[in-house]
Amino acid sequence: MLTDKAITQAKPREKIYRLSDQTGNGLYLEVTPAGKHWRFRYRFRGKAKMIGLGTYPLVTLREAREKALEARKVLVGGVDPSSLKKTSRGESQGIFRDVAREWWERFASTSTPKYSGEVWSNLERNVFPLIGDMHIAEIDAPTVLAVLRRIEERGTFTSMHKVRSYISQIFRYGIACGLVYSDPSRDLSNALHRKRSTPRAALVDPAQIGLLMVAIEEYPRVIVRCALKLAAYTFVRPRSLSDFKFYKIYNYAFQYLYKRDCF
Predict the structure, then answer these.
(1) Kind plus residue range of the DSSP H or E element containing 4
(2) pLDDT at 84 exceeding the cut of 70
(3) How far apart are CA 85 and CA 91, in angstroms?
(4) Edge-to-edge strand order for the sheet containing 27-32?
(5) Residue 57, preceding bond cis, omega within 30 degrees?
(6) Is 179 strand, coil or helix?
(7) CATH number at residue 46
């Protein structure tokens, strides 16, 4: 059974670990490099689930046990404690996963289904298991850093910076909604692996650019020659130039330039 002394002596390790209260109420203390968080683990309709009950020492051992007992009573009544928590106006407005969902729904409406799906999948895989059940106001810079460091340890630096961007956008959405007052991810740049830019070959001499345009003019295939010229005029990515979704846009551009003898 957990005691205040055992909780105080529990030191962070490289990996997250849990201490069970061993009272049969499903209460665990999750010890992370960023802090100590209360978790209530249970099964609902045969599926293992977990909800957050706050952060120690803001939520004491006694308070955590009382919350776990309340959740257990709800579960015995045939109700999922997580769904009850979401419908409770006092708590649902601040749970990070719920705030992220609200932000993502607005983000998805202005993005492609494929990209917005990748964003949500990334959050579910790398962020929610660690801070999804926490109140957004409880999440500080060290907590976010611990999330990002786990990704950094895998060597996926690009993914790490993407996740940091998503977390930052979620916090800025939370600030706009009055749920939190600052974005803890904004001060982490010096604590993370920096992006390494890869220099790419480019023509910067006007004379060389002129020779390139002459070479394009002499290319035998008309469709390729027109595409290369259109790329030079519009500076689009090669994939976008060949993408069917942009066919009409580039067709109009091509007709406009063709009428002015640009080709």
Answers:
(1) helix 4-9
(2) no
(3) 7
(4) 17-20, 27-32, 35-44, 47-56
(5) yes
(6) coil
(7) 3.30.160.390
Q: Mean pLDDT over residues 130-135, rounded?
A: 87
Question: 100 and 83, same structural domain?
Answer: no
Rounded Cα distance between 60 and 66, Å, is 10
Q: Where are the beta strands (DSSP E) in the chain?
A: 17-20, 27-32, 35-44, 47-56
Q: What is the per-residue pLDDT for 225?
A: 80
Question: For residues 120 and 127, what is the distance between their CA atoms, to the nearest angstrom?
Answer: 10
- Residues 89 and 156: their CA atoms lie apart, in Å, by 37
CB neighbours of residue 15 within 10 Å: 10
For range 41-47, the mean pLDDT: 82
* Percent over 90 (pLDDT), the chain: 9
Q: Which amino acid is at 101?
A: R
User: Are 65 and 27 a contacting pair, CB within 8 Å?
Assistant: yes
pTM: 0.49
Query: What residue has token string 């895989």?
Result: 125
Torsion sign (Cα): 113, 115, 116, 117: positive
Which tokens hold the place of 119? 């964003």
What's the number of domains the chain is made of?
Answer: 3
